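Protein entry
_____________
===
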Amino acid sequence: MADRVAMYLQDAHPLPDAIKYVQYAESRGFEAVWQAESRLVRDAIVPMAAFAATTSHIKIGSGVINNWTRNAAVIAATFLTLDDLAPDRIICGIGAWWDPLASKVGIQRRKPLLAMREVVESVRALLARQRVTYQGEFVQLTDIELDVVHGRKEPRNVPIYIGATGPKMMALTGEIADGVVLNYLVSPQYNAAALEQLAAGAKEAGKTLDDIDRPQLVVCSVDKDRKKALDASRKLVTQYLGQQPHIMRASGVKQELLDEISQVLTWPATEEQIEEAMRLVPDDVVQMITASGTPDEVKAKVREYVSAGATCPILYPLGSDVRFMIDTFANGYAN
């Protein structure tokens, strides 16, 4: 069986270019594209619709929308509509969002596990074309269904994946979701604890870890010029070292480096501070938490993530030559 491989897009490219990259990835055998909705910049649904309308067989996932700002019934209607554009090719990726962004737009993320459970359960029931009454703390639906008058009336095959980070959300994902979107900028070894929690959650629902698909976001900077590839990742890594030191610590980054960087970076960091802090970050740290370097190096790193439990790398291309990254992985990553 061919290696599974997918691509991740944020907002780095104009949408017409992103469409062309997705079409090219499809032509080179990529399984899926996942569209981010991370910062307050690019909605995931509009690009997903564009990709769905301009491709024929690649899968299209939200990577990820949040479970707070769209009503559960609207989420279900949105993904039914996307499935009309690309039947059996749509994946609903959903996450718990993050602060300070959530609080700045008036969302108080209380009881995140309960809120996620209610949204996933109700959206799944609606997409299964059930008539739904759901009286939860966060989701209140009274005798509704996806009211398809014109078009396909059958249940929709839209799997639900959770972008989980914390251990409790990971366990919930194992219990209620079809898959997990594992995070990026972690070392492959960081996956071990995630898999334990997924397995525990799956067991609660009478499933096993093998029943949970586990694609993983992987920052990928590939260039024949190794230094150029590493420098493209170094900036992102530096910002993350400053913003998420607890995750970096868990991935094996030495405390001394984190302390040095925290003395240089404020939050939000200025461009000058980032440039200064970048000089502190050695190549081995960049390569520990990203797939960066020559084609052989990035493929070897992706194999580490797969060996650590990821079922499909979702490659986040850094650098200007997205097609070169697609070409690098067109025949898989086995060698």
Summary: The CA atoms of residues 210 and 318 lie 31 Å apart. The radius of gyration is 20 Å.
